């Protein structure tokens, strides 16, 4: 997923549903998404991610769903 690419609303909704469906705690998943979005927003303010076309919450959902679907991409 490229940072500057827009995600269709339908795809975003499917990714969010997938995150919540496979989580053991919906509230905790929602808090994790919000926390990551807050981190990304501050990264944008610091100029680390320039010209981002996707909103922080959308980016957080996409990143977390990619991590869920492809755990081999995680470092470590």
Structural summary, described in words:
The structure is a single chain. The protein has 76 residues and is mainly alpha-helical. 62% of the residues lie in helices and 0% in strands. The chain has 3 helices and no strands. Helix 1 crosses helix 3 and helix 2 crosses helix 3. It is globular, with a radius of gyration of 12 Å. The two termini are 20 Å apart. The mean pLDDT is 80.
Give a summary of the structure in a few sentences.
This protein is mainly alpha-helical and 76 residues long. It has helices at residues 9-21, 26-45, 56-69.
Quaternary state of this entry equals single chain
Q: How many individual helices?
A: 3
Rounded average pLDDT: 80
Structural class: mainly alpha
Low-confidence stretches: none
User: What is the straight-line distance between the termini?
Assistant: 20 Å
The shape, in one word, is globular
Q: Give the helices and strands as they follow along the chain.
A: HHH
Characterize the largest beta sheet: strand count, sense, and whether it forms a barrel: none
Main traits of this protein?
single chain; mainly alpha; 76 residues
